[in-house]
Amino acid sequence: MIANSTNPSNLINPCVVGRAEDRCARTSWLLKPVVFVLLGGLSLAGCETSARTSSASTAAGGVGEETLTERVDRLEKELANLRIDYSVVRPSMERIVSDENGLEARLSAIESAFGPVTASISPQATQTPAYQPPSTPSFPSVGIHLASYRDLENVERGWAELQTSNQDLLSDLDLAVVDYRSGTDGVYKRLIAGPLDPASAESRCASLKDRGVWCQVVTIKR
Question: Could you tell me the pTM of the whole model?
């Protein structure tokens, strides 16, 4: 609309209406300044609009630069706070690291001290059976009862006499003295020779009986 109104050819020409040449000439002469004034005003308006647009753009750019500046300031403050926090906790962190190194050194010392002991203990984990010394010989459960006495001295004397007279049957045997309590006569000491297996005890006892020696196969109580 403005572009059409600024074109001089589109303005109403009074010459067409009045048909008078002198009036047309005067009117055309008078309208020229008006047209120039209108064109100048429109040019000024356009310049003002462009200036306002440029000012608005400049203002918008200023706001963006200010926000970026604030953001940079905020990040710098946060970085400064982080440095302050680290400076506060740094001594504690260094102390923890130092304590850990100290514990590792102590642990290494303990392991070094217990190393040889552990090596000497490990073979014993197999539970090696303890040494059992051989037991002293003892009579089996069978012997030959040859006599009974009241005291030990008579037992030893009687045993010596029996061995002398029956060396072939008693020389390889040992003496065993067993106490026997009689219901009415008290305690007797039995002279028993052994050790023998049951078959050998029966055979030797039979041979002694043939020689007139009293003999009886007995079970020896341990």
Answer: 0.38
